[in-house]
Amino acid sequence: MRKIYETYKTVILYLVFGVCTTLVNLACYHVLYDRLGAENVPSTAAAWVVSVLFAFFTNRSFVFESRQNTLTGRLRELASFFGCRLLTGALDVAIMAYCVDFRGGNGLLWKLLSNILVIVLNYAASKLFIFKKT
Questions:
Q1: In this structure, are residues 58 and 10 in contact, taking their beta carbons and an 8 Å threshold?
Q2: Rounded distance, CA 66 to CA 130, Å?
Q3: How does residue 129 score in pLDDT terms, banded at 50, 70 and 90?
Q4: Residue 122 — very low, low, confident or very high, per pLDDT cuts 50/70/90?
Q5: CA–CA dist 42, 48 (Å, integer)
Q6: Residue 44 in contact with residue 19, Cβ under 8 Å?
Q7: What angle do helix axes 9-29 and 107-125 make, rounded to 10 degrees?
Q8: Could you say which of 3, 5, 46, 109 has the lowest number of CB atoms within 10 Å?
Q9: Dist CA 97 CA 33 (whole Å)
Q10: Cβ(111)–Cβ(26) under 8 Å?
Q11: Is 5 exposed, middle or buried (0-12, 13-18, 19+ CB in 10 A)?
Q12: pTM of the model
């Protein structure tokens, strides 16, 4: 069992923190959209900001165990992380606008489905570009 964990440690931790990030995203969206009555797209955008901040710190520290100690290195990671997340965040907003606002779908269901796609795309970007081992 330990060998399996060591072999797939990054993927396992990314999935664990991906689920946590999704829960943060869903909770923020739910509070803003369902409880406070905010509009769909602003609720989606605000939930994205909060979940990206959560994801950066957990991914950097626990998943990819970044060893960047210089200010320049850390800022590069932060800029790359937010840049990639901005692209997938825009995809999330587009999915939510189309599926909820234009098609009348269930907000939480589409938020969950959208987040699954976003997690996969974000893992690839983090592994290949942002926190790559030097």
A1: no
A2: 10
A3: confident
A4: confident
A5: 10
A6: no
A7: 150
A8: 3
A9: 13
A10: yes
A11: exposed
A12: 0.74
Here the tokens at position 109 are 């269901």
105 φψ region: left (φ > 0), alpha (ψ -120 to 50), beta (else): beta
Kindly list the distances between the CA atom of residue 5 and the CA atoms of 40, 55, 75, in Å, as whole numbers in the listed order.
39, 21, 30
- Is residue 96 within 8 Å of 107, Cβ to Cβ? yes
Q: Amino acid identity, residue 19?
A: V
Nearest to 60 by CA among 90, 82, 27, 91: 82
Sign of the alpha-carbon torsion through 104, 106, 111, 116 = negative
The pLDDT of residue 73:
87
Q: Taking the CA atoms of 100, 102, 105 and 110 in sequence, report the sign of the dihedral they define.
A: negative
Q: How far apart are CA 118 and CA 112, in angstroms?
A: 10
